[in-house]
Amino acid sequence: MTGKIRHYFAGGNTAKGFHHFFDSNLASLTRLWILKGGPGTGKSTLMKQIGHAWLEKGYDVEWIHCSADPDSLDGLIIPALEIGLVDGTAPHILEPTAPGAKEEYVNLGQAWERKKLELHLEEVEQYNKKIDECYKEAYSIFAMALSIHDEWEDIYIENLNREAADQLAQTYITRLFGNVSLNKKAEVKHRYLGAATSKGAVDYIPNLTYELPKRYFIKGRPGTGKSTLLKKVAKKAEKLGLDVEIYHCGFDPESLDMVIVRELGFAIFDSTAPHEYYPEREGDEIVDTYDKMIRKGTDEDNVLKIQDIRKRYSEKMNEGTACLKKAKYLHDELESIYIQAMNFEKVEKIQQSIQDQICEIAQID
């Protein structure tokens, strides 16, 4: 029986720069391989091949996707074996907690043919400089977009019925948790619902929620309390000893977009653009924050202002995405230089060594 893949992001290109939650997702592992090496050294391919090998053995795996390029992996976790592999190069540099005992560095750079790389030294330096400039520009533009988004939120915050917001939150907390209370410490994992990538906004909501019998789709405008509601749900779950997956906004990491409590079989998430979904099966339910909390006529009274804000916000998001797309193009060019200088037979030996160690952990011949 083939295992299942769970897809998510742990790092994000946000309005506040690159921000990651790798530590949260790797904390429970007893063995971690931290992969080092430049672009094109085969880190993502190595993780995918090891992941597929264990999927075929019937193990569930987690794929941590790269926010710069969602087709690439930043990490692989096999929960049942409590092991993982992760890309430990910038910008997600990880400090080991127990070097040798838990974490092990794997240097794929040992498979470089250095003389070939030395021929492209200036070119490599220029590519790295340009890529860094692209990301800095993207973060600056996303910060401007966040400021515009705050204008959008202010319209609805000024027309928010806070008492109704508190009442709605309490109603759903009662429905979601009832009298449940577990005598254990909650395991809390922080992730991203989606990410701003070179391909635009990407999320894995269907994959993350398809097994859950109850899904709550929060609908509403910016500033209608969606994130506040989710923070209250997450806090309650943790207080009750329930394991909780907290998914942050890929644009603003201080805001929440989804909470999953698998022990109770539910997900509740912000289902507005750019991650807009609608109920499609039994157990799906809409939570309308606009209708219950915002003064009637708010949209109509601010229609021109909202149109202007939406236009400016969209323009900035497109500009930021264009910077990420340019960074991806430059990264691909840089990768091609490293690929030509790689001895992939050495990489395959490194991969086989890791695979053998995992088999030993799993007690499989």
Describe this structure in words.
The chain has 365 residues and is α/β, with parallel strands linked by helices. The chain folds into two domains: 5-112 and 342-362, no CATH class; 160-288, no CATH class. 44% of the residues lie in helices and 22% in strands. The protein contains eleven helices and 16 strands. Strands 1-5-6-7-4-8 form a six-stranded mixed beta sheet, covered by helices on one side. Strands 9-13-14-15-12-16 form a six-stranded mixed beta sheet. α4 (121-157) packs antiparallel against α10 and α5 (162-177) packs parallel to α7 (226-239). It is globular and about 70 Å long. The two termini are 18 Å apart. InterPro entries: P-loop_NTPase. It comes from Jeotgalibacillus campisalis. This is ATPase.
Descriptors:
single chain, about 375 residues, alpha/beta, 2 domains, 16 strands, about 20% strand, globular
Gist?
This protein has helices at residues 22-26, 43-56, 114-118, 121-157, 162-177, 205-209, 226-239, 289-293, 298-301, 303-340, 344-362, and strands at 5-9, 11-14, 17-20, 31-36, 61-65, 73-78, 83-87, 103-107, 188-192, 194-197, 200-203, 214-219, 244-248, 256-261, 266-270, 284-288. With 365 residues, the protein is an alpha/beta fold. 35% of the residues are buried.
Element pattern in H and E: EEEHEHEEEEHHHEEEHEHEEEEHHHH
Instruction: Give the overall pLDDT as a whole number.
Output: 94
Structural class: alpha/beta
What Rg is obtained from the alpha carbons, in whole angstroms?
A: 22 Å
* Helix content percent band: 40-55%
Cα-to-Cα separation, first versus last residue: 18 Å
- Inertia-based shape: globular
The proportion of residues in beta strands is 15-25%
How many structurally independent domains? Answer: 2
Strand tally: 16
Biggest β-sheet: strands ordered side by side in the sheet: 1-5-6-7-4-8
Supply the number of helical segments: 11
pLDDT < 50 runs, ≥5 residues: none
Major β-sheet annotation: 6 strands, mixed
Protein name: ATPase
Organism: Jeotgalibacillus campisalis
InterPro entries: P-loop_NTPase (IPR027417)
